[in-house]
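Hello,

I think I submitted the adenosine monophosphate job twice by accident. Can you confirm which output corresponds to this input? Input:
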Amino acid sequence: MNIILLGPPGAGKGTQARLLQDKFGLIQISTGDMLREHIKNDTDLGKKAKVIMDQGKLVSDDIMIAMIDSRISQPDNKNGFILDGFPRTVAQAEALDAMLASHKLSLHWVIEMRVDEAALIDRICGRYTCSNCGEGYHDKYKIPKQSGVCDKCGSTQFTRRDDDKPETMKKRLDAYRAQTAPILPYYQQHGILRAVDGMADIPVVAAEIAKILS
Ligand code: AMP
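Support: Only one job matched these inputs. Its output is below.
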């Protein structure tokens, strides 16, 4: 089963993708994580992408399409994948259809995670992840059981994203409204779009998504 999680930054796509990965044996493909890996490794692409990401803008379609094309054809995807952060423009959605067709794959569901925009800045600006296992936390909404220690792997190293600042967040939301939201009617026409309430508690959202997938 191949699915897309769509929604503005802070909607919880990454959190839900990780849960789906565990529950259904799907592979999470996060273009944001792939770009951050390039930045960490100081590649040419990473250097270019960082400037764009820090401004809250989108990296060019050509780069992102090439990145996904080489990723979805890898053998670890045989049970299916969850795209988290791709497609983000209509051009990317159209290119994805062509890529899937050429790899003889199809798309089963596109899950739109609906959220209250006013709450997003609060959600995003307090979030951080475990540097070792990637488990997500939040200053107010998800605090580790033992302060400063990851619940999942025991690491004491955590990371905050450079683009999780209120000014950048507003630009990322503008990019979502202008460039990503227009994808929704595209998938609506294909009859595979379903929406969930992304403001509900994490397990409730996960159950709603699981219901759609099964
Ligand atoms: P994310 O982790 O999905 O919120 O992505 C972080 C940033 O990476 C975005 O704000 C964009 O600058 C860039 N990015 C990630 N995925 C894409 C994409 N599919 N198209 C263009 N830019 C992307």
